[in-house]
UniProtKB/TrEMBL annotation:
Gene3D superfamilies: 3.30.530.20. Residues 16-146 form the Activator of Hsp90 ATPase homologue 1/2-like C-terminal domain. It comes from the Bacteria. Pfam families: AHSA1 (PF08327). Belongs to the AHA1 family. This is SRPBCC domain-containing protein.
Length: 154
């Protein structure tokens, strides 16, 4: 089987300054609120070790069966400017794909220009690439809604 790869970028302007957005991006309790791609899906953080070299593990999927396991390894945490990490998606004991993800946060007035770059290699076919991108798009859309609510509550 050939290796399928893809890279994509997402950009959002969010209503929080970088230091406040940083917490939403890295704190496990916040990530559980916005990280799932749609309302029918949950994200449960089982292990959170957000430090350079740290390993997180979360599960994602329907609330009654969050069977997708994601291992996140943190490589760069330059607060509140940049985070770089890998994510490995495991389903049914099989590694489906691995991604290199970069967050860049640039102050924009009272808010932040968030850039997200994802470079993914799929070991299970090209459909995994599309599903992963759809998941990221949904998660980042949820982050925008969550950040707006978080900013309004402050």
């Amino acid at each position: 089987m050939t290796l399928d790869t893809k890279s994509f970028d997402m950009h959002r302007t969010l209503p929080l300054p970088p230091d406040r957005l940083w917490a939403l991006l890295t704190d496990a309790k916040h990530r559980e609120k916005w990280g799932a791609p749609d309302p029918e899906t949950v994200l449960i953080v089982d292990v959170a070790d957000v430090r350079v070299g740290g390993l997180d593990r979360h599960r994602c999927g329907p609330a009654d069966a969050p069977e997708f396991v994601v291992d996140t390894r943190w490589y760069d945490l330059t607060q509140p400017i940049r985070a770089v990490f890998t994510e490995t998606l495991i389903f049914g004991g099989t590694t489906a794909c691995t991604s290199l993800v970069t967050y860049s946060l640039d102050a924009a007035g009272k808010g932040t220009e968030l850039g997200v770059t994802v470079a993914v290699s799929s070991f299970t076919g090209p459909e995994t690439l599309e599903e992963l991108q759809q998941g990221w798009n949904g998660g980042i859309d949820n982050l925008a809604l969550y950040a707006a609510k978080y900013a309004a509550d402050a």
